[in-house]
Amino acid sequence: MTSLLTLLLFVCPRVVPMATILTYHDVIERRDQHSLWFDCSTSELDYQLTWMTKHGAQFVTLDDIYRHVVKHIPFKRRAIAITFADNYEGFWLRAWPMIKQRRIPVAMFVHTGLVGNRQGRPKMTWSQLRELGRSGLVTVASQTVSHPGDLGQMSVDQIRKEFINSKRDMERELGHRCDYLAYPNGKFDSRCEAEARAVGYRLAFSEVQAPVEIATRPFAVNRYVHTKWRRAWEDASRVSPRK
Fold it and tell me: CA angle at residue 38 from 144 to 94, to 5 degrees?
């Protein structure tokens, strides 16, 4: 992927900054022996958001990303979309106060079958998700119903049910359209792309560690895991290959 990016930038440079997407998962109070690789502590999140803000980040929404990908509307400076996966209550308790104070737009990807689940790491409730959506800062989006380990190993009927039922439940509970989908664990195939389009999503997101512009299809948009935030920043500082 790095060599492809380098080739594109060399052959057809364009003086337009790239866009990148970061995805966080649970936000924990502090790291300890029980922390997982995808955890982000409050101090880490605070540092990363502060650093990116001070260095000129343009925090953008998924609607902005849609217009960029589909309508080719460029960004004027380093554009970064901040997303969260898995609907952890840690977002509500620790990340949300920080994000609300800074007025940074973010997205939360939710697996609807586990909303409000208190087993293991608690998940946010529909009431909390509705409040987030009403804030104007949080785009609440789909991450299927059951968070399958690998959508590519499922039948088309199973994939379709995950996409349709999640979208239906999101729209019923939140009272507005659900336009965006994240593939759990970033795993998908061409059938998933086709079903996401057919169901009515506008974009779908993978976990390929590359800028948005390197994605050639709107239902396979790249995202970096937050542990790669420095790399995402560096890539957002590059110029875009010609459309």
Answer: 90
List pLDDT tens digits, range 121-176: 999 999 999 999 999 999 999 999 999 999 999 999 999 999 999 999 999 999 99
Pairing of strands 19-24, 224-225: parallel
Residue 86 to residue 4: CA distance in whole angstroms: 31
Q: The dihedral of CA 167, 168, 173, 177: what is its sign? A: positive
**CA–CA dist 29, 94 (Å, integer):** 7
For 4-45, how does the pLDDT look when each residue is reduced to its tens digit (9 = 90+)?
Answer: 544 444 444 455 678 999 999 999 998 887 887 788 999 999
Q: Are 65 and 144 in contact (CB under 8 A)?
A: no
Residues 6 or more apart whose CB falls under 8 angstroms from that of 235 comprise 5, 18, 20, 210, 211
- Closest among 168, 103, 188, 165 to 138, alpha carbons compared: 103
Report d(CA 146, CA 20) in Å as an integer. Answer: 27
239, 9 contact by CB (below 8 A): yes
What is the predicted pLDDT for the residue at 36?
79
Name the nearest CA neighbour of 233 among 22, 46, 47. Answer: 22
